[in-house]
Amino acid sequence: MTATFSAATGLLAGLDLLRIEQRDATLHIRLNRPAKRNAINDALVAQLHTAFVNLPESARVVVLSGEGDHFCAGLDLSELGERSVAEGIVHSRSWHAAFEQIQFARVPVIAVLHGAVVGGGLELASAAHIRVAEASTFYGLPEGQRGLFVGGGGSARVPRLVGAARMADMMLTGRVYDADEGLRIGFSQYVVEAGQGLEKALALADKVAANAPLSNFAVVQALPRIADMSREDGLFTESLMAAIAQGDDAAKGRMRAFLDGKAGKVAKS
Question: Quick one: CATH architecture of 6-209?
Fold first, then answer.
C-alpha cells in the first residue's frame, strides 16, 4: 500500500477483521483473515455490514479486496455447527443484509479478485459493481458437493452475471472457472496479471470518483432495480432517473464544459 493511504478512524478503525484505509475519495476495504483464506464467519459478515452502513462522507468509491493469497474462500465451515432450520434462516439473512449494503451502497464498489473466489466469496464478489480479476483467480460454487445451498444472495446475483444454467452446472458438478474463462462468461470485467489487480482497481476508482456523485448513485441504485421491473415500469423509472440526474447542478456544469470544448471526448483507453 502506498503512503498516500491513511488508516480509517473512529468506528471503522475498530473493525479488526477488516483493514480499512482511505486515499482522497477512495476507501479501500480489505478482508483481513488471510490464515483462513478470508473465509467469512459471523463476525466478518457483521463487520462488512457495519463498514458499508458507515462509509465516510468523503468516500466517493470503495475498493474491496482480500489480504493474503486469496480474495475469499467462502463460508467458514468451522462455524457452521448444528444450526436449526430457524437459525440457518437467520444466518443467511445476515449475509443478505450485509451484501445488500454493498450492492446498494451509497457509492460504487470495485472488487479486486485473486486466488479463491469460491462459494460465499463469489456471492460477495457478485454484489460489487465492477470486478477486476488477477490471473490467479478461480471461481467455484462447491455447495452441492457439501450438501449445502447458497445462502448469501448468490441465487439472485450470480445468474445475473453468468446465467442460471451455468450456475447450476457449477453447483451440481463442482466445475471451476479460471480468470480468463471468468472474464469471458461475465464473472469479471477485467483480467490483469498477478499483483496488478489493486493498481487497476485504483485507476478505475479514480475515474469513478471523478463522476458526478448523483450520476454514480443512479447507476448503482437504479440499474439493478430496473432489471427486476417490467419493461414499461423500467422505462418509466429510467425517465425519472434521467430527469433527476440531468437536473443536478454538477451535471449542468459538466454539460456546459463539454459544450464549451473543455471536457474530453469519448475515446478508447
Answer: Alpha-Beta Complex (3.90)
